[in-house]
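Dear colleague,

Following up on Tuesday's group meeting, I ran the structure prediction for the two-component complex that the binding team flagged. I've pasted the input sequences exactly as they went in, so you can double-check that nothing got truncated or mislabelled along the way. The structure tokens for the whole assembly follow below. Feel free to forward this to whoever is handling the docking comparison.

Inputs:
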Amino acid sequence: MKRCFLPLFLLISTISFAQSSLIEQARNFRKANEHALLGEFMGLLSIPNIVYDTVGIQRTAAYIVKMMENRGIKTQLLNGKTKSVPPAIFGEVIVPNATKTIVFYAHYDGQPVNPNQWAEGIEPFKSVFLDASLEKGGKIIPAPKLGEKINPDWRIYGRSASDDKAGVFSILSAYEILTKLGISPSVNIKFFFEGEEEAGSTHLSEILENHKEKLKSDLWIICDGPVHQSGRKQVVFGVRGDVNMEVKVYASKRPLHSGHYGNWAPNPAMLLAKLLSSMKDDNGRVLIKGFYDDVVPFTETEKKAIAKVPSVDEQMRNELGFIQAEGGGKSLVELINLPSLNINGFSSANVGKMAANVIPVSATAALDLRLVLGNDAQRQVQKVIEHIKTQGYYVTQNESITDEERLKYPLIARVQAQKGYNAQRTKMDLPIAQNVIKAVQSSTSEEVVLMPSLGGSLPLFLFEKYLATPTITVPIANHDNNQHAENENIRIQNIWNGIETYVALMKM
Amino acid sequence: MKRCFLPLFLLISTISFAQSSLIEQARNFRKANEHALLGEFMGLLSIPNIVYDTVGIQRTAAYIVKMMENRGIKTQLLNGKTKSVPPAIFGEVIVPNATKTIVFYAHYDGQPVNPNQWAEGIEPFKSVFLDASLEKGGKIIPAPKLGEKINPDWRIYGRSASDDKAGVFSILSAYEILTKLGISPSVNIKFFFEGEEEAGSTHLSEILENHKEKLKSDLWIICDGPVHQSGRKQVVFGVRGDVNMEVKVYASKRPLHSGHYGNWAPNPAMLLAKLLSSMKDDNGRVLIKGFYDDVVPFTETEKKAIAKVPSVDEQMRNELGFIQAEGGGKSLVELINLPSLNINGFSSANVGKMAANVIPVSATAALDLRLVLGNDAQRQVQKVIEHIKTQGYYVTQNESITDEERLKYPLIARVQAQKGYNAQRTKMDLPIAQNVIKAVQSSTSEEVVLMPSLGGSLPLFLFEKYLATPTITVPIANHDNNQHAENENIRIQNIWNGIETYVALMKM
């Protein structure tokens, strides 16, 4: 047995040695060029990229095309059959003698922003440096001048700083460093930067279908999401699916004085509160009929991987400042592998200085359903709709309620659901999956966390469906990045680590 | 008995005749001067008067002072001991040989506005004419040119069009018409226009206390609120009290990605939904312990008056577009004579295009408690706080929650309550009350509705407390005026009727 191990050990060691020398070279190059690297990144962050803002999306895409051209990458904008939607940015590097082709994916669009919700002095698209996270009392500091040391614990705040311009930037920086070092990648590289991920990747399927040949590869590596909360790098083999719904309940046709009609006229905020309450018990378990049906159980390999995921529950509770989690005692890693129902937000009339003594006309909740393998997005939506009906509601999709409807039904809800998409999981024991694990492991001295599925979502099922190609996600952002919310940020060390991860993956 | 009735009948008839001749003269004057009257009113509406906007409040007060000076009324701004709060505008007209003094009250400040919630083309402080109410498909029409007939069913849209610049305007127009007609009022008249009513009249007590002598009178007549929903004029002898609260529940310190943490991290919107749900049953009955205690029952006279109030429940349900009222079958007039708990609005993160897939950090509800005779504002607030505690919450008044608190209590709510004020009721059988009823009745051919208490609130207890003077409310606005909300409006005929009512009251 010992003899059998020896050559294998040597082989790994060789790879390890080669890689760590590679990583060291990349690190040295980065250290000598940090200001230039961050300068390009700050430029990218300064361009508004809200997924629904066509002009900002076009400007962001143009900036990335320029970044790629500066690196000698031939680019092309890929469209589906639907016009006027954000294009994907494609680029290709053919490597002589390479036998495998890998597509590196990130997305350049960002979630909507409400600038009023951001901290003072921090604007979504005028990114700034802070000397620590806001939660740890971080303060805004001037951008480091040339020659000034850059503390890797500093953070950059701005929309998409982590989700997912950091992905675009780290992939392109990894490639640039290899080129500048004169090191040829070991695989053919394709770049694919999506522009509509935050709107649910509505037209991604069209783009994949339209450009099947061009996008042919052995694997898609997805750069999105955070590293493990323990701070360790992670390789993720799947994602939850996701579908958004909006539920709006109606009361009077016009807002009423809460004195003259309070106690008598129905209050839509109270109606919605009761409707939402009926959906989950006090432990956070969803009470909607059949909500947990259809779930495909984990394989043995996946179960073993999950058992090895370091527990971060207590650390996270302390960090996030609460002691009572949902789930009745189940762990975070268990719970993010179940379907979920989350209230993204709700609204009815006004609060604070704008509040007035009225009975509002309607109340609205934005819901987010996460799906696991086996769930179907529209089937899950339908379960929620059925639940709303069993609570006595007449459900319509129309925004304007007719007088006939108002005088026929005691309770009226408008429910609109997006298309959404299902969960996806790549088998952890595929040979190419093992190569990815080795490459990422070679770029760090800590044990890499192997995660069968992320709690978050990406439309990865599309790559299987339209291209029959597996996907593996290799995230880089700090876990406390406020992704999707106000005060989004990235820790600078995470950018540096991310670049090294992707250098290793391009040379795996 | 017949003989006894005869002189009384003759007397009433005489008053009626004198008054209707008065009303007729006033009406004719108004008809000849409608454009000029409305011109002055539109000018008043064009000045922002949000109670928290000091500059707007000062400009509004200056305009009203000018209106009064144009009518030959000597004015004075009355302050309490607190500086930089909206002053009350005072004016006085001494009538030779008059034995009674009446203070005519209205308020010139308005509720906050969220212009985005107003209908297209209608701005809170650029008031416009519509040819009908929005709910009945009304369209914006050009302001009537001189000589053009003004349809009394047209409406004017703008903040405070009804609440309560219409009050200020109608009182001053009634006085102006009497003067122009050369008719002397039968009572000494004092004008008192408050500037802080919509902020809960926080400093009114100081003003009353500071100017006790100046404000001496036999009666305050309050011009605020709507006529009865049946369209009939009403005389109102009391009001509910009112106190506002804000409840904010907290979860994570920072917003979380709903995929990576959904199902595990507590969701404040769901927590608040459950907390609010626990406050009322499905019939709208408040479940908070002791909520309905302390209520002083109606006198026999009041009960009789209530029995005579025309039922408008079905009419109002049809008009407002709902079939299921709160209250489990009790009538509107019964229910507005009970204490109430209304959600004025709630908010957590975002909905609609701004919604993002996050677990919000907090959720806030604005509550409005209406009080009836016997309730005490702070005692009622305390009952709500106790209820929140019994739901497992740690309750604090502080906006920022410390880490120690976060890691000690599973559920945390910040509750802030305003001072509020209690209900008030004037006895309907006072001789001066009977005079008011007669005067209002003389200005209309329909039977006047006598209402022991309005569902709405005004700080009328203060007049009893500081001046030992009764108050009677004589409202003029159309009931469907969207008071306090977006698209506030007044029907022009209600202005005309209101002026006639106040002409009669000044000559009662």
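Residues 52 and 463 of chain A are 24 Å apart (CA to CA).

Cheers,
M.
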